Amino acid sequence: LRKKAAYEALKGIPPPSTVDSFQGQENDIVIVVMGTAHPKPGPGFTSHEQRLNVMLTRHRCGLVVVGDINV
User: Which InterPro entries does the record cross-reference, listed alphabetically (predicted)?
Assistant: First the structure.
């Protein structure tokens, strides 16, 4: 019963997406999790102006960015 209630509460939440797959869409609140699987240091993804634009402009009401400044 508890699992069913949790499932029902999460049912309306959109699934996770990549920036590339989210292009052309928007949502009330967007949560961006900055991470890397790339072994080389450097700006990586954030050096791509178009991707950065998509990441920062797809929210209607709120944008939350989570990351490690040292990565």
Answer: Coronavir_polyprotein_1ab, DNA2/NAM7-like_C, P-loop_NTPase
